[in-house]
Amino acid sequence: MKYLKYASVGFSATLIGVTLMLSSSLMAKDEKVKEESRLEALAKFTKVLGTVEQYYVDDLKIQEIINKSIQGLMANLDAHSSYLDKSHFKDLKMQTDGEFGGLGITIGIRDGALTIIAPMEGTPADKAGVKASDIILKINDKSTLNMTIDEAVGIMRGKPGTSLTLTIVRDGESKPIVIPITRDIIKINSVYTKTIENENILYIRVVNFDKNVVKKTKEALSKNIDIKGIVLDLRNNPGGLLNQAVGLVDLFVDKGVIVSQKGRYKEQNSEYTATQAGTFDNIPLVVLVNGGSASASEIVSGALQDHKRAVIVGQKTFGKGSVQVILPVDKEEALRLTIARYYLPSGRTIQAIGVTPDIIVYPGKVPHKENQFMIKEKELKQHLKEELKKVDNNTTKKIENKTKIKDENIITEENILNDLQLKSALDVIKVLSIKE
Q1: pLDDT tens across 153-183, in order?
Q2: Considering 320, 322, 419, 423, which one is annotated as catalytic?
Q3: Strand 99-102 relative to strand 257-263: parallel, antiparallel, unpaired?
Q4: Which residues of 335-358 are buried (b: 16+ CB within 10 A; e: fewer)?
Q5: Distance in angstroms (rounded) separating the CA atoms of residues 10 and 2
Q6: Which of these, 59, 108, 112, 182, is most buried using a 10 Å CB contact count?
Q7: How far apart are CA 189 and CA 41, in angstroms?
Q8: Which residue among 337, 360, 383 closes a domain?
Q9: 3-state DSSP call for residue 197?
Q10: DSSP 1-59
Q11: Would you place residue 32 in the very low, low, confident or very high pLDDT band (cuts 50, 70, 90)?
């Protein structure tokens, strides 16, 4: 029996050895096939480059052909990957620092069309009347069909004080609209706060996610400890730095996953979680979003929604849930490459889907009667006769033009009546405060 046992073990070991040898042989064969296929593809690419260099109607230098090849490759991967040449790489650095030259809009490709994600508040584009979801048909006289994002940015940015025109297609308009805009230095105040008139409610507006968002928001919250509610306005916020989005959620959530990202390789996967320290978790919170809320804005609103920490009010967000990294090619050029996708705490994705608000409210004014002067019909004729006597006797009252100095740090009732989404958010805060 011992002999048979040892013989069985020896046979098993031999079988395992043969299996490993066959597996190694197959793997080596697969690697060889892959390498041959790779060399064939590179040879094909080299042949195409040579053909273009030799026969194209214009005399293109090989460097130009290579650059155009890279641009075409990146543009065909997805709407957010791109090749950053020297000028575009420099522009990107300036933008993340919070100051740059141009119009003040964030653009993207949606359904193959160059689309405005959002105009940045207070910038030339915003003042000129550009709106989120406008489709750019032409920049000056140049069509945007098949134009990349970087090409469009390159045309729109220029010397402050110079002008250009955007021809846009807007939903609800019967024909394209031409909008002239004068370029300027874009300085973004990423966060500002106001209080609601006669209400102990704090309004926090986050314009974009630059490096100062968490710091400024934390300062505002620390100065307003006794408030009964917060309205966090992320409308027309095109996104920005991921760590600032995570940090902003962490101010309101004390535990659990905020966002995760999953890519092709394990090392590209990561998970960001909330910490308990410094959390403002007892204050009713409402977040305002719309079609111009993208990327980092969607992470914040979606995470707060999944944690049931905030009520989301407004319109469905843009739907950009992919992760881009900047990979240098050399000291002056780089690739912006999509390496992963974002996933919210519930596991749902943002990409091409967006965040649907808990309460959908479209923009507009609050329906109300501005003039509360009421008079019965039977009294009207007699009343008007009396008013005419006053006119004839020069007893009309002259209204003095007393301009009321407005406090820029207070949102007035007039402001609220002109913003139905904000009014809805304030109503939700009041309901949540009663519940508390």
Answers
A1: 888 988 889 999 999 999 989 999 999 999 9
A2: 320
A3: unpaired
A4: bbbbebebbbbeeebbeeebbebe
A5: 12
A6: 108
A7: 49
A8: 360
A9: coil
A10: -HHHHHHHHHHHHHHHHHHHHHHHHHHHHHHHHHHHHHHHHHHHHHHHHHHHHHHSSS-
A11: confident
**Residue range of the domain that includes 247:** 191-360
Q: At what angle do helices 2-55 and 62-77 cross, to 10 degrees?
A: 130
Q: 432 in a domain, yes or no?
A: no
Give me the DSSP letters along 365-419. Answer: PPP--S------HHHHHHHHHHHHHHHHTT-PPPPP--PPPP-TTEE-HHHHHT-
In this prediction, residue 6 has a pLDDT band, given cuts at 50, 70 and 90, of very low
pLDDT higher than 60, residue 378: no
Of the candidates 332, 360, 388, which is a domain's last residue? 360
- Residue 360 tokens read as 């959908």
Whether 177 and 218 map to the same domain: the answer is no
Size of the chain, expressed as the number of residues it contains: 436
Catalytic residue among 82, 295, 297, 424: 295
Distance CA 52, CA 60 (A): 8
> Which of 13-22, 211-220, 243-252, 424-433 is least confident?
13-22
Type of residue found at 141: D
What is the C-alpha to C-alpha distance for residues 271 and 262, in angstroms, rounded to an integer?
Answer: 9
375 sits in the region (left: phi over 0; alpha: psi -120 to 50; else beta) called: beta
pLDDT score for 433: 85
Q: Is 163 a catalytic residue?
A: no
Among the residue ranges 76-80, 245-249, 396-400, the one predicted with the least confidence is 396-400
Report which secondary-structure segment, H or E, holds 263: strand 257-263
Count of domains observed in the chain:
2
- Are 108 and 183 members of one domain? yes
Is residue 320 annotated as a catalytic residue, yes or no? yes
Q: Note the pLDDT tens digit of each residue in 210-259.
A: 999 999 999 999 999 889 999 999 999 999 899 999 999 999 999 999 99
CB 208 within 8 A of CB 216: no
Contacts of 270 (CB under 8 A, 6+ apart): 260, 261
| Residue 340 φ/ψ, nearest 5 degrees | -165, 175
The one catalytic residue in 126, 150, 306, 419 is 306
pLDDT-based confidence at residue 148 (cuts at 50, 70, 90)? confident
